[in-house]
Amino acid sequence: xxxxxxxHTPDTRNIFFxxxxxxxxxxxxxxYSENVTPTKVDTLTVSIQSQSLGGLEYVLGHLSGLPFPRNxxxxxxxxxxxxxxKETAMQEFELSNWQxxxxxxxxxxxxxxxxxxxxxxxxxxxxxxxxxxxQEALDRALRNTLKRIQKVVSEARPTVLxxxxxxxxxxxxAGFVLESEGVFSEFVxxxxxxxxxxxxxxxxxxxxxxxxxxQDPNHKPSxxxxxxxxxxxxxxKNGQEVRIVQEWNGYRVPIQYMxxxxxxxxxxxxxxxxxNRCHRVSPANDPFTNQKSNSRPRSVRWIENLLxxxxxxxxxxSIWHILAPHLINVKQLSDEEAYTIIITWLDExxxxxxxxxxHKPRVKDDIKRARRGGYYPISxxxxxxxxxxxxxxxxxxx
Length: 398
Hints:
Number of domains: 2
Largest sheet: 5 strands, mixed
Strand content: 5-15%
Distance between the termini: 67 Å
Number of helices: 12
CATH topology of the largest domain: DNA primase, PRIM domain
Number of strands: 11
Order of helices and strands: HEEHEEEEHEEHHEEEHHHHHHH
């Protein structure tokens, strides 16, 4: 950490959690106002500069290798730019009025045998308040995540930031280029063909694994796009200061502690991809294709009937195996249209019996899976075998 002391380090056993009232304080005041004298403006600017510089130096202490060159992003820029020193980064932060200031966890380019394959050096976990029913539920998810991290490596104590919208966890690791290891060589060609390095896959695995699937589903970190917020700057969405809740203890966790679970993750991903390919059928074998005209109908009657009839059970199964592939790959609707239709159906289902799962991210994930996999909804004959109760229900709707 380079001797930086940004704040008093709280005791791990008594980690500080924000109350609802605390999350509303410390709004970002404008730097220039008719009611503020030049002396007060100068004092305020110097104060924010000082805390932002401390925050930048604190985050830089987490990064592996040389701190610069490095990509940064601010609200004013609304894009990533490369900077070559700390002073330029601070100038851009000030030009943005200290709002939405971020720096990349990875350098712009890391070469390995002519390819951009960086060694994983940082895990970024995003716990979004909007994904939880309350602040208390969010705090509980944070506690469980930190316990899960320490269960894997007892010495681990990552940085935790309050961003105004949730918690960010910065988890430095000591890694290596995974593509260079023989045990992962069987997974290299698949990752290269999709343009996703094993380093990126590891980051996404780690976030999902340590949060037990509670991470922000829209957060998709990669070695090319992993931007860390700077403590002491401000979140433009709510004006709150980005604050340190728990400091990193300086221990960079060896990646070896996580590689066994990561390899299992890659194997399961390969199995899932193979299953998706099995669902893709040619027009000659496509049950949804009109053989005479070689064209597809734009709907399937029993599925359309299901969309008009809320049910009390098998809702998750219906989304994944029936509704999402029907709307995306048969009716060929946009993701937004499919999402609206399924959410409306689930709202009606919830009136009969409350949903037992957080449905919005689930629907988004199933739509993405259907779009990516290109598979069709389950046939009635297969539905009868896999889910007799649901089959009985939908056939009565005819």
